[in-house]
Amino acid sequence: METANPIVTEFQADLTKTNGLKSVPLLTDSVQNQHAGVAHVAHLASNGLSLQSNASPDNCTGPGVDFQHALYAVSYTIVFVPGLLTNSVALWILCRFISKQNKTVIFMINLAVADFAHVLSLPLRIYYYINNYWPFGIFLCQFCFYIKYLNMYASICFLTCISVQRYFFLLHPFRAKNWKRRYDVAICVAGWTVVGVGCLPFPLMRDFKNTEACFTELEVKKISNKAASLVMVMVAECIGFLVPLIVVVYCTWKTKVSLQEYRTPLQNAVEKQKALRMVATCAVVFFVCFTPYHIVFFFFMMVKETVITDCGTVKSILYIHPFCLSLASLNCCLDPILYFFTTSEFQERISRSSSLAFRSRLMSKESASSEKE
């Protein structure tokens, strides 16, 4: 039990006698607060800490919840409408009208399925970001969270397969004639399996304890060993993005070089032009949608693991990350360019369908005018 200061007690008694006051607690509290403040500073100094060390990365807050929710709601709404229309039409034409002679059709169908699945999950995301509330349960939150990354890496996988196949068949046209469609099916099954298993850590590394929160409000589980965490991220980035990017860039470059060769027959030149447009489109999707996200994601994980502690750098990364994540979903609108503008059979089917629709409308108008007469 602490003893009172005799000087303060005597002074307090004098004030009580002269002014008729019972006690003066304020003076005693101020003296005790001063002693407590000195003791707290001494405790920090004894542990080798300074007052400036309290400026930890946790105090460097990124964009607020309202800003992120508004950004995601707008960006996903922009992606949803054209993504739903283009991928629906693409799946309908690819599954029904593309002839069996087109070797990349299997990869295109799987690419469209991956995009279509992600597009169908966007309304739930938009609902959450507008209402700031998730009423659909933990499982559906995990599933939508998983579909986001499944679409991203499935798109990377099948875009890489399209680029490699187009370049390989251009380099070895005789092997293309003997290529079996079941080979493409086997590659797609293997691709879905690898990507599906590889994307499981994304939902598993998030905390789903709050049933009313989802997506941006899910905290990242910290791994005790920071070095192991960063090694895992680097390996995943290399296998899931860097290696496919190098392959796509190489196929684009070699296809362009083969097109510039002298004495190329006209028919081969046309085929090379088609192949170049296709692999170049794959490269554009890589650089526009996936490259910014994967560059920022590595630094984002370093922030979450408190490896990066500079406040300005932390804020910059936390503000850039939502924009890159929104940009990654734009691939659902860019992937159909492969079908509409780089596949001649696709263009022919669309032109035939549009001409038939125009003819039917014209005939209906003529029949209606003849009945009136």
TrEMBL record:
Location(s), subcellular: Membrane
UniProt keyword annotation of Ubl conjugation present: no
Domain named G-protein coupled receptors family 1 profile: residues: 86-339
SUPFAM superfamilies documented for this protein: Family A G protein-coupled receptor-like
Source organism, top-level taxon: Eukaryota
A Pfam family the protein falls into: 7tm_1
Coiled coil: none
Membrane-spanning residues: 73-95, 107-130, 150-171, 183-204, 227-253, 274-300, 320-342
Bilayer disposition of the protein: Multi-pass membrane protein
Keywords assigned: G-protein coupled receptor, Glycoprotein, Membrane, Receptor, Transducer, Transmembrane, Transmembrane helix
InterPro entries to which the protein is assigned, alphabetical: GPCR_Rhodpsn, GPCR_Rhodpsn_7TM
PANTHER family: G-PROTEIN COUPLED RECEPTOR, PURINERGIC RECEPTOR P2Y, G-PROTEIN COUPLED 10B
Protein name: P2Y purinoceptor 10
Organism field: Gekko japonicus (Schlegel's Japanese gecko)
Gene this chain is encoded by: LOC107121361
